[in-house]
Amino acid sequence: MPTDPIRFYNRRTRTIETEQVYGEGWLRFTYENPVGKFFLWLVVKRAIFSHVYGWQMSKRVSAGKILPFIVQYDLDVTIFAKSVYDFKTFNEFFYRRLKREARPIAEGKDVAVFPADGRHLVFPNVDEAAGFYVKGAKFSLVELLGEELLPEEQRVRSKLFAGGAMVISRLCPVDYHRFHFPVEGVPTKPELINGVLYSVSPIALRKNVEYLVQNKRMITLVESPVFGQVASMEVGATNVGSIVQTVIPGRVAEKGEEKGLFKFGGSCVITLFQKGRIAFDADVVDQSKECVETYALMGERLGVAVR
């Protein structure tokens, strides 16, 4: 039997909506059908599958997919930084820039913002969360931060964020695919944690939320004068050609400043705050308790610092 439709809370309209899933039939076959699961194990999760698909989206012939995609998903072309006709490939369109005014940044030194457009889950205390995409389905910070093979005394990052707060920001193929800093601070050099490339659609994550800690990901620590240490992680997924970092390590990054981009495919950004350093906005917390994602845009208010 197919899983339930993917529903999310639209913060702007304050209504529950049903997601129009890109490639839904393929996703349901791969993650819900026994034959599809074998194909998943054999081919889909492997990097070569996504690299080949990403390569196809970088060929000039792929530009023919742009206008049909815009029409099908009713995208607002007026906020694009350049004309639709200037994109030479689908991938160029996919990681397009937007006009600056299209994503205003919530003001206030003590205000954190969402790092990307998408559907978000927040957990004020990741250790006490009842579950992420499904009640009872969780992963540990040790796994997320790639420290499961280290001796206890060397698990520095998982200890740093123990009992801390987490944001899972899921980007669909229809979304703006650049990610940004949620707070002002000084970033470290992004570090790669190698892994496979499962889908990050709830169709997949409801079956196994640990796909998020098995996938390839990159982690950057941001030293914030207001929020303390903040971890910004980008998670790759099926058909993501690559994660491109534009961050400049060691230089102060402003809140809302671009950190990087994803090439073709759905993807995810995970943000960690230290224990007791942030109070998320109540509406997002309430939805997340029910495993319902909140749709919000990059730059919108996420929460405030706790001193």
UniProtKB/TrEMBL annotation:
GO terms for biological process: phosphatidylethanolamine biosynthetic process. One of its GO terms (molecular function) is phosphatidylserine decarboxylase activity. Transmembrane segments: none annotated. InterPro entries: PS_Dcarbxylase, PSD-B. Its EC number is 4.1.1.65. The keyword Lipid biosynthesis applies. Its cofactor is pyruvate. It is an enzyme of class 4 (lyase). It comes from the Bacteria. Coiled coil: none annotated. It holds the Pfam family PS_Dcarbxylase. Keywords: Decarboxylase, Lipid biosynthesis, Lipid metabolism, Lyase, Phospholipid biosynthesis, Phospholipid metabolism, Pyruvate, Zymogen. Pathway: Lipid metabolism; Phospholipid metabolism; phosphatidylethanolamine biosynthesis. This is phosphatidylserine decarboxylase.
